[in-house]
Amino acid sequence: MKTALVAGGAGFIGSHLCEYLLKKNYKVFAIDCLVTGARKNIQHLIDNPNFSWIEHDITAPLFMNVSCDEIYNLASPASPVDFEKMPVYILKTGALGQMHLLELAKQNKARILLASTSEVYGDPLVHPQVETYLGNVNTLGIRGCYDEAKRFAEALSIGYKRMHGLQIRIARIFNTYGTRMRPEDGRVIPNFFTQALAKKPLTIYGDGKQTRSLCYVDDLVEGIYKLMQSSIDSPINLGNPQEITVLDIAKAVANTCGWKDYKTTFLPLPENDPKQRQPDITKAKKELGWEPKVSLEEGFKKAFDYFKAQ
Ligand SMILES: NC(=O)c1ccc[n+]([C@@H]2O[C@H](COP(=O)([O-])OP(=O)(O)OC[C@H]3O[C@@H](n4cnc5c(N)ncnc54)[C@H](O)[C@@H]3O)[C@@H](O)[C@H]2O)c1
Fold this sequence. Notes:
alpha/beta, globular, binds nicotinamide-adenine-dinucleotide, 9 helices
């Protein structure tokens, strides 16, 4: 039986990953300080004898006397509302948090996977985004704390690989959605579902022609797992290459909620909001044999049930 440590295990993606690993017969330790996650996300796992949960902030060193085979680092605030509220904390989590987990991986001779982000490409000038693209990040902008934290965490991981021969994995995750997202987290899917269910006008920033590529969480978790099991120790894009405008997302969400004559309001585009997002997943397809399977219609139905219950 393998042991995995999931930092950020009480978050949206992290809790799904814990569930997935338990189904694969892993012993799972979830570490989380609940800054943006919630105990209710892992409540259904608490009685599982192979699951343990540790409340800890990874910006502080970890002293764990359990050995582990795999470490997944998903711990980081990740939504635009967090970028405004806690920029320094996000930078500390990307830097100190990743360093503490890399040290733990070194002690345990464990593999370590970093949940990086498409935000390392900033507002990209290359489309679709391929892993070799170096990005267009505004260090000083409102999103700079998150983009740079992840870029630093990637560079630190590569440093540990070079200096200590650590087995690192870097997943550059694109927009992901699904059950257990915080309704108020400010990302496009929770925003639209919450507004549509309350029959409030859907807020579109800018002209709505900017694009997003939306991956359902189950697909992403499978990609993360496949990456960990692979021998790929350079960054790899994980996301759904189906590109869709924000206007079309609004329409699809309203349709899913059965709101035919839905209303919209337009607000100015936030600073450095990416205009285009589409992963080039050629590498993931070739090296991992992975690509998303869940259609937008299917994913939106699951999201609808979840947000309605909230
Ligand atoms: N959801 C997406 O679309 C997306 C896209 C790209 C990258 N990612 C990355 O995936 C990871 C998970 O994102 P998510 O959407 O599930 O966000 P989330 O906020 O739901 O989950 C993050 C979890 O990490 C915990 N956490 C944050 N800082 C911590 C710290 N210092 N110590 C311990 N725990 C801490 C939070 O409490 C939360 O439970 C993040 O690293 C994020 O950057 C997500």
